[in-house]
Amino acid sequence: QEIVSEESEEESNGVNLMEFSDEILLHILSYVPCTDLVLNVRRTCRKLATLCLDKSLTHTVLLQKDYKVNKDKVKQLMRDIGKEIYQLNMAGCYWLPSSTIDHITRCKNLVKLNLSGCHITSLRLSKMLSTLQHLRSLAIDVKPGFDASQLSSECKATLSRVSELKQTLYTPSYGVVPCCTSLEKLLLYFEILDRSREGFMLSGQLMVGESNVPHYQNLRIFYARLAPGYVNQEVVRLYLAVLSDRTPENLHAFLISDPGSFAETGATKNLLDSMARNVRLDALQLPKAWINGSGLLQHLKFNNPFYFSFSRCTLSGGHLIQRVINGGKDLKSLTSLNLSGCVHCLAPESLSRKAEDDIDSSILESLVVSCCNLRHLNLSAAHHHSSKSIGNHLCQLLSRLKHLLSLALPVCSITDVAASVEKPPTAPHLVPQTFGRKVRIGIQTYPRNLADQANQKIESSVFWALMGSLRFLETLEIIGSSFNSAMPRNEPAIRNSLPPCVRAQSVGDSEVAAISQLTYLQSLTLAQLPNILTGSGLVSIGLQCQHLRTLSLANLGMMGKVVYMSALMDMLKHCKCLRDLRLEQPYFCAGAQFFQALSHCSSLQRLCIVSRSGTLQSDAVMSFMANCLEVIMCHMFMGESLTVCKNLQQSIVQSFQAERPALNVVISPLLHEDLTEVIRDVPMRHLDEITLFKSRVAEEPPNLWW
Questions:
Q1: Where is the F-box domain (predicted)?
Q2: What is the pLDDT of residues 137-162, one digit of tens each?
Q3: What confidence category does residue 329 fall into, taking pLDDT thresholds of 50, 70 and 90?
Q4: Is 463-488+500-690 in CATH node 3.80.10.10?
Q5: Residue 257 in contact with residue 283, Cβ under 8 Å?
Q6: Dmax over Cα atoms in the chain, in whole Å?
């Protein structure tokens, strides 16, 4: 009896989860996937059965990265809480069959629906939308075979009330745009290829019988993102034709993102002239050809701008200050600025300036003072070299931006000017000419202890000071100004890479170690850091940045050998929250030791390795896939033969596809002639987020879509 009484006393003194208030329990339950709440947690006890059906948990259902969800779970979920769902996000659920869409008809009160990346036919779309009379926001894909004539009158009635539309086009089409007569926000993603699978050239002409009169009179936001290719440019011009005739009076965001050379025409010039006369913008992004050499920015009017992108434009710093920043007026509202590839944006003028010349620190200072509330800043893909002036280094000026959440910089911009200028070159005559024990040349020993690194660099490194001042930074990209990924979008793999900038030669392990000060870092990209000798800084990041979810490393150190492999494996043992890992490095050996270290990343979901002349061990890959149960994407582009790659891919699919419905495996020789055909079958979610290398800071306006 005494023993029982002691146990009961211990239980009474312990914390019982069910004794928490409903508010605390609801907050805890909000971190649990909705499918688990409704299908599992709800069945544990009466109290949780009630709380799991609370409106705060069922109002918005997010399935977009619930890789374990299947058709049966969606069916049961819609049956249990369909009437309670007002917002449903199934973006990127590429593994679900198209018949899954039929169950959404149970969600009679649905207001927002995201089906981007889902399989859906015209008939199924028509049937579903016919029952969703309260729908106001819709995101869908338009693929070959889409036929707007199959949409019923009830479906068109629903579309006529939709005010927000996101449409990803894989075929020349207006999609459902002509049916949406109340559009206020239109987001268009053009992913049309120039050639069919059979090799035939495609045309940008729309399908016969389609209406060519989109309704833009109420439009407030127009956004278009184009994948490479002339067909995408042809189709987007058809969408813009109506805008050029009559510009909506309430338009406040106009954004066109094009990676190529999108030439200006008479129609687009009329559109821009009309915008300059009739609207005041809050967000702007235009193709570089529309801005370069024109006085457009001088005539456009802005209200309370929150996003600017002048990516790859030849805009000079003088024009940036005079025409955009307007002498520091009205720019406190700007939260996101993309100057990626804008090589002259920190120089007074661009006519006589070389891209490698020093920046004008006064321009950057004006930018920092005027845009003091910036949260996202991209200065990558350019040579931003600071002068020797004390206190005017780029890193010192950027440290004033205390609200930054994401930052992208070129490698050459973070180097200490004195260090890069005064550092003596390594030469044979500098080596002591003595007899006895041989001296190893060119390899330095770096401290692996974070405190030792801090003591070495805290007083002299401007980059260390910058990292110390941006303690709340969540995304950081340090990318070489001449770096190009070995695997571009629609072209063969690049075989030769350009050498790094001379100013970047001194950037290495110590600078990487400085990043470990970012306690809240979630996403890190490092590319073309030539002075990586041991990779010891990576270990510091693994130990200190415990929130790291996305890691992308490319071309670190010397190209003939992966010098940081040991440090990388040590780092991975500490990355418990890592979900996405992308590695691009020539001669990378994906062997047993690497995959054993990677197995410590218990949260890992997606892995991509790009390596010219790289090797892999099939047994190690299979063992890794068996141990890491969360991995649903494995992309490896190596130097192995086509037979080895195909056999491994087939083995992974056969072994794990049944228990991992979202599994996507692509293993291919990097330099194979059919690589582009292999890439076109990769789900857009993976292709855009991890497989293809690109700078993602300020790529789009914040909160463009939910």
A1: 14-61
A2: 999 999 999 999 999 999 999 999 99
A3: low
A4: yes
A5: no
A6: 94
